[in-house]
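Hey,

Quick one before I head out. I ran the complex with zinc ion overnight. Inputs first:
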Amino acid sequence: MKKHKLETYLEVYDSISELPDTIQNLINKAQQARDNAYAPYSHFKVGAALQLASGVIITGNNQENAAFPSGLCAERVAVFHAGSNYPGETILHLALTVKSSHKEIDTPTPPCGACRQSLAEYEVEQESPIAIYFMGETGKVVKADAVKDLLPLVFDSSFLE
Ligand code: ZN
């Protein structure tokens, strides 16, 4: 038996202002999208904004449903829009922010497991990393250089060959 250690390095920024203007702009777009989320059940609004290599920014927010599993997370709303409207275009970064009506969230909130899997599909296909920036409503911003850093041992198309 051998033990393998998996390591991930994340960058932690004390505030949005430490980030480059392009990323601050992307986070602003994610915040705007977040505030339009449809979250009448959880009151937990999530906004995502991703930037394509062409410069196009695509946003998404969580869309809940009375039949709970029918809803969808912000990240997947955004990345599926990118995949359906800009097929084959490279995604450079994705910004993610959350807001609750119950309390101010200052803990950086990462994508859920299902979103990591969905995002990984695009990262594997485009053969270049998608940087993920995630935060709460306020406070620190965490950057992962790639989806694979948040999803080690990714299941991808290579297993289906
Ligand atoms: Zn999710």
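The pocket of zinc ion is lined by residues 73, 75, 111-112, 114-115 (CB under 6 Å).

Talk tomorrow,
K.
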